[in-house]
Specification:
- By secondary structure, the chain is an alpha/beta fold.
- 36% of the residues lie in helices and 15% in strands.
- The protein is built from 20 helices and 16 strands.
- The chain has a five-stranded parallel sheet, with helices on both faces. The protein has a five-stranded parallel sheet with strand order 6-14-7-8-9. Strands 10, 11, 12 and 13 form a four-stranded antiparallel sheet that branches.
- Helix 6 runs antiparallel to helix 7.
- The longest helix has 21 residues.
- The radius of gyration is 24 Å and the shape is globular.
- The termini are far apart.
- Bound molecules: flavin-adenine dinucleotide and iron/sulfur cluster.
Length: 495
């Protein structure tokens, strides 16, 4: 049953009346139930683009923080790619000192309101949590991400966020290519040392995937704008509509524009396709295009946006990752009557976060598991009219450790669809490689770097995030961004 925010808040209030954070015994902490995240009702949320998860109430966050055992060996920190002092910030949250909790997080992570929403905590910090281990269920771990989200939102809403301090101005200047999470964290840490920082963004809005990819209903764009404003407050310049490799080459930045170092955080924005017949038909989109139209170009807001909306009744989404879930749930909100995820393995192998799969199911997304698309079928005018699929069964595990899908002979069938969104992953855009002599990339097109310093094959050029890792996560991109900034700062001090 879907519980309302008021119900969940009342339940938390009763627990707070029973236990006091100063005197509660360790054993009692483990009896407190995990606080459920209040969400919009599924039947309502599919009619709007507003955030699905509403965030904990103050009572809930105090109760959830009380579940933390303050373990001496702090195993959860081991699972955090940026090493946040998790027990310390949770201890402050349990006392209701949210400003102090936020300050603690911000020592290690610049974007807590974003990470609290989109990080796959169940594979990271929460996977190491003692409470989850005691309960033998990672889903029962302390909800570290939800507490982080509350603390960051509270501090922002109460104007308790402080702009990071910047040392006195040096004469060095650094160019940052891209404005995604890798670039944001690198830019901030370089600027803190007093160097001038100029960011270059190909699109007309800054923020990378946080702005053009992840939908509004999972990550409100006003939060991303707010975080980027704090970069501007630090004195960082952001140049939009500037494509490095076309507007200026990387060489130009180093030699003609006299930047002392360049950081490349250009992401993995080149969509992959299945290379099956019919992928050029009208009504076939890459997930990148589909989500960009909706998020960045606001196609969902037909009254105020000039972006045309492709009218869909029956949408097929190929793939089973977070991007596929985002595409399917977006299609539903854009008015499609039926939306189906077509994935060649079973539910167990779905790479998307469990929470996203559950939310998609609640919203009526259909899961055609163990099906492999063979062809997109078109009508005489070149529009999509169906997808030819074949049924699969699971065989032996492959290199990824997941069981391999094996097609079953004689099971081919054509199912009616009028739209297809291909969401099977992204690769690096080759533009920078093509326009920069001496920039080494691997066979996938990812820039090759020294793992510790993020230095590329060109002196003074550093890179990290998805352009190095392939499509990864926000927090990994941020963690690497900090490492790169450290290396850039020491390179500049020696230069
Ligand atoms: C739909 C979607 C959903 C996702 N959901 C999650 C999630 O829930 N949790 C999670 O942790 N991760 C998620 N990810 C992955 C995560 O967003 C990325 O790993 C992360 O954004 C990578 O950061 P980045 O800074 O390396 O690159 P990006 O965020 O891709 O930013 C790169 C920026 O560089 C710009 N750029 C590229 N080339 C140039 C150039 N030549 N000149 C100037 N600018 C350039 C691009 O326009 C872009 O703005 C998702 C990804 C997608 C696509
Ligand atoms: S492992 Fe879990 S219980 Fe222990 S300190 Fe970290 S969050 Fe708290």
């Amino acid at each position: 049953m879907h519980k309302s925010l008021e119900q969940l808040d009342n339940e938390a209030k009763i627990i707070l009346e029973k236990f006091d954070n100063n005197s509660i015994k360790m054993k009692e902490r483990t009896t407190i139930p995990l606080q459920e995240m209040p969400t919009q009702d599924p039947s309502v949320r599919i009619t709007n683009m507003e955030e699905v998860a509403l965030g904990y109430t103050e009572n809930q966050v105090k109760v959830e923080a009380m579940r933390c055992l303050q373990c001496k060996n702090k195993p959860c920190i081991e699972g955090c790619p940026v090493g946040i002092d998790i027990p310390a910030f949770i201890a402050s949250a349990a006392k209701g000192d949210f400003a102090k909790a936020n300050e603690k997080i911000k020592e290690s992570s610049l974007l807590p309101s974003i990470c609290g929403r989109v990080c796959p905590q169940e594979n990271q910090c929460q996977n190491y949590c003692t409470v989850g281990k005691i309960k033998k269920d990672v889903n029962q771990s302390v909800a570290i991400g939800r507490i982080e989200r509350f603390v960051a939102d509270y501090s922002r809403e109460h104007n308790q966020d402080v702009t990071p301090s910047v040392k006195s101005q040096t004469k060095k200047k650094v160019a940052i290519v891209g404005t995604g999470p890798a670039s944001v964290s690198a830019a901030a840490d370089v600027r803190r040392e007093g160097h001038s920082v100029v960011m270059f963004e190909a699109l007309h809005k800054a923020g990378g995937v946080l702005v053009y990819g992840i939908p509004e209903f999972r990550l409100p764009k006003k939060l991303v704008e707010k975080e980027l404003d704090s970069l501007v407050d630090m004195g960082i310049e952001i140049n939009k509509n500037f494509l490095v490799g076309k507007t200026r080459t990387l060489d130009d930045l180093l030699k003609k524009d006299e930047f002392d170092a360049v950081f490349v955080g250009a992401g993995a924005g080149l969509p992959k396709f299945l290379n099956i017949p019919g992928e050029n038909l009208i009504g076939v989109f890459s997930a990148n295009e589909y989500l960009t139209r909706s998020n960045l170009m606001k196609a969902y807001d037909q009254k105020n946006s000039f972006t045309p909306l492709f009218n869909s009744e029956k949408v097929a989404v190929f793939g089973g990752g977070n991007v596929a879930m985002d595409s399917a749930r977006t299609a539903k909100r854009l008015g499609a009557k039926e939306v189906s995820i077509i994935y060649r393995r079973s539910e167990e192998e779905l790479p998307a976060r469990r929470e996203e799969v559950e939310h998609a199911k609640e919203e009526g997304i259909n899961f055609m598991l163990l099906h492999q698309p063979h062809e997109i079928v078109g009508d005489e005018k070149g529009f999509v009219k169906g997808v030819k699929v074949v049924t699969c069964e699971l065989g032996e595990p492959d290199d990824s450790g997941r069981r391999r899908p094996v097609e079953i002979e004689g099971t081919e069938q054509v199912i009616d669809f009028d739209t297809v969104v291909v969401s099977i992953g992204n690769a690096s855009n080759p533009l920078l490689k093509q326009t920069t002599k001496g920039l080494d990339v691997n066979k996938r097109g990812n820039i090759i770097v020294n793992e510790d310093t993020c230095e590329t094959s060109i002196k003074g050029v550093f890179a990290c995030g998805d352009i190095v890792l392939g499509a990864a996560t926000v927090i990994l991109a941020m963690g690497q961004g900090r490492n790169a900034a450290k290396a850039i700062n020491s390179y500049l001090s020696e230069k």
